[in-house]
Amino acid sequence: MTRLQEATPPSGGIRSFAATAGMSCVRSVQEDRRGTSARADMPAASHAYQAAFLPDLKEVGEMRQTTRAFLRRCRTSTQVAEFVVLAVSELVTNAVIHGEGDIVLRITVAVDVVRVSVTDHNPAPAVLKEAGRDGESGRGIRLVDAISDAWESNGEETWCEFRDARAAA
Prior knowledge:
This protein is an alpha+beta fold. The chain has 3 helices and 8 strands. It has helices at residues 58-73, 78-98, 140-147, and strands spanning 3-5, 13-17, 24-28, 47-53, 103-109, 113-119, 150-153, 157-163. Strand 5 (103-109) and strand 6 (113-119) form a beta hairpin. Helix 2 packs antiparallel against helix 3. It is globular and about 35 Å long.
């Protein structure tokens, strides 16, 4: 069973629940009605989604669907959204198969970047593997490496980022 949680940006914020798929969005307090930051050093709109769930392959499809709906609500460009959904699928699958304990998926959308983070309780970092030509697994992290602008794994957390997140308004 998935537990949806709401995140608040470190700068504080106004919380509102998204109507789509029970997701939460966070909007920075400093953001004005035009979607621009009231302070030059603050990022404009910041939205976040978080789900915690037990390791179960059924969750992979659900996380893809809720990610797609969340990114649509955040007006993320279609091209970036498709890459993010693919990365979510690969990272969640990796955590279900290789992780330990509960899994937490966090997605943060800012004006120019989408960050995906998946955590579990396995201290071993995700690694790039060479899958055999006929191998049925071992390509997930390599795929994330190929489609994302940056990624890293420190053990319990594996994250990736995608630039140019927002579609033109």
